[in-house]
Structures are given as structure tokens and as C-alpha cells.
Design goal:
This protein is of the alpha/beta class. The chain has 7 helices and 14 strands. A 7-stranded mixed β-sheet has the order 10-9-8-11-12-14-13, with helices on both faces. Strands 2-3-1-4 form a 4-stranded antiparallel β-sheet, covered by helices on one side. Strands 5-6-7 form a 3-stranded mixed β-sheet, covered by helices on one side. Strand 13 and strand 14 form a beta hairpin.
Length: 277
């Protein structure tokens, strides 16, 4: 297994990410350091994009490209840092299966083992989506159908099911995500229908409420397809995965599809947004 990392200047990161996601629809791993943003992708030799393609995608923002061989147990390394995460002033806890005391008096507990899929609940984008779901449930809006677009490990779909939404459907393009989300729903004893959908090429499953923890380029694509009538417009859409400086553009794109901002959670690099019809 090879890890291919692209380091770029922070001011060019948004453009580089958009180009890389077009090459690697399954998504990238992001790390930030002093003076750079690093995007990494994993794959067997021969299945990763060629270096000239990567360099062209990074363009003027390129700092360096680094390839490293990853140990065979790379997919299990997340166990070293996956710890319980509390959300909503401790009301909801997301924990790995081997941590038996995850949240004390938390009202809701979710057990997540992501395996090769994205999503332990620890990333700011996931936590903010969970906060939006908690707020909706507190306002008596945690019911009816919900779809989770780009589910990863299934954490948002499982949280929605535990908070009262039904039916819940989750979709992702990666087979690893399909397997992880299915297993995690079973472990949490909730009903989640998991489907394999390529959000760049296929219409995602419709629902009155939708969670979409995705990158800004993909959110912009979905918004344009909503405006064109190719993707069903939900009554409520919780989006995350958006850098703070991307928020205005994402808001405007969904505004063109008839969705207005209701709640914004921002702070640091990342932001989340609840949009309503």
C-alpha cells in the first residue's frame, strides 16, 4: 500500500483540493502544518494517479509530493488514536467498541469502528453535523425520513436513527464505507439502509432531511444539480466539510436551489450549516 501526499501552500489549498477530488473521488486525508496543507491518498501501486497528474492538479500551489510505503496493518492504525468523543455538552458520545466507559451519563451513545472508512466522530466537521442533528431533535424535528450523503463509517446516519428519524438511508461510493456503515448500524441496533452511490454521477437518495458532510466542491456540484432539477431538494439540509472561507459560496449555491441558511456553526478552519426550504 502506498501513501501519496501532496503539500501545498495554504492560500492555494481550496483549489488543490478541488482538483485532487476530481482525480480521487473517494476523498483525501487532510493534515495542516506550519506554512502548508497536506492532502494524502492511499492505494496499491498502479492504482494511484500518476505523479504528473498530481503535480498538474496542485499547479502553482505545489510545495512537494511525497510517496511512502505503508505497513500492511495501516487500516488498523486508527485504533491508536480513536478515543471517545462527546458532543452537545456531553449529551451524545461516540466511542470505539473497546472503550466500555465512553460517556458517563450521556443520553445517547454511538459505537463506531471505522475500519477503512472515514469517520470516527472526532473531526470538527462530524461533530458540528452531530450538533445540528441534536438541535433539530431538541426542536421536535427529529422525525421523518433522513438521508446521509457520503456516510463514511455511518456515524451521522446512526445518530439520526437514535435521535428519532426513520427511515434512515445512508450512501457512499467506497465499498469500505458500505461495509463499515452496515456493521456499525448493526452494532448500534438501529435500522439504516446502506446503498452504494457515486454522488458525482448519480442522484443521491431523496429524503425530507439530509446530512452531507462532504467537501465544498462536491457540495457545489450537488447544489447546481438541485437547482437544475437533477437532485431532489430536501426540506432541511445539514452540510459540513466546508472551510470557513468557503461558506459564503456554498450558501449562495444552495440559495439558488431554494434553500436558505438557518443555523451556522463556525469556528477555526471549519464550518457547518443548516439550510431549510
Amino acid at each position: 500500500m502506498i501513501r501519496l501526499a501532496v503539500r501545498c501552500r495554504p492560500e492555494q489549498a481550496e483549489l488543490v483540493l478541488a482538483e485532487l477530488v476530481a482525480l480521487v473521488p473517494g476523498g483525501v486525508e487532510e493534515e495542516r502544518g506550519e506554512g502548508y496543507v497536506e492532502y494524502a491518498i492511499y492505494g496499491p501501486p498502479g492504482e494511484l494517479p500518476a505523479l504528473p497528474e498530481i503535480r498538474a492538479a496542485a499547479g502553482r500551489g505545489l510545495v512537494e509530493v511525497v510517496t511512502t510505503e505503508v505497513p500492511d496493518d495501516w487500516a488498523d492504525r486508527w485504533r491508536d488514536f480513536h478515543e471517545p468523543v462527546t458532543v452537545g455538552s456531553g449529551r451524545l458520545v461516540v466511542r470505539p467498541s473497546w472503550e466500555r466507559d465512553g460517556g458517563g451519563d450521556a443520553a445517547f451513545e454511538i459505537v463506531i469502528d471505522p475500519g477503512r472508512a472515514f469517520g470516527t466522530g472526532a473531526h470538527a466537521t462530524t461533530r458540528r453535523c452531530l450538533e445540528l442533528l441534536l438541535d433539530l431533535a431538541d426542536r421536535g424535528l427529529g422525525r421523518g425520513a433522513l438521508a446521509d450523503w457520503g456516510t463514511g463509517s455511518g456515524v451521522l446516519a446512526i445518530a439520526a436513527a437514535k435521535l428519532g428519524w426513520a427511515p434512515v438511508v445512508a450512501c457512499d461510493h467506497e465499498q469500505a464505507a458500505i461495509e463499515a456503515a452496515t456493521a456499525n448500524a448493526r452494532a448500534n441496533d438501529v435500522e439504516v439502509a446502506v446503498r452504494r452511490v457515486n454522488l458525482r454521477e448519480q442522484a443521491p437518495p431523496p429524503a425530507a432531511a439530509v446530512t452531507a458532510n462532504l467537501t465544498a466542491p462536491l457540495l457545489l456540484s450537488l447544489a447546481a444539480r438541485m437547482a437544475a432539477g437533477a437532485v431532489a431538494i430536501p426540506d432541511r439540509l445539514a452540510v459540513s466539510g466546508v472551510l470557513a472561507h468557503e461558506l459564503d459560496g456554498v450558501t449562495a449555491a444552495f440559495g439558488a436551489a431554494g434553500l436558505a441558511p438557518e443555523t451556522e456553526l463556525a469556528g477555526g478552519d471549519w464550518a457547518a450549516l443548516l439550510l431549510t426550504r
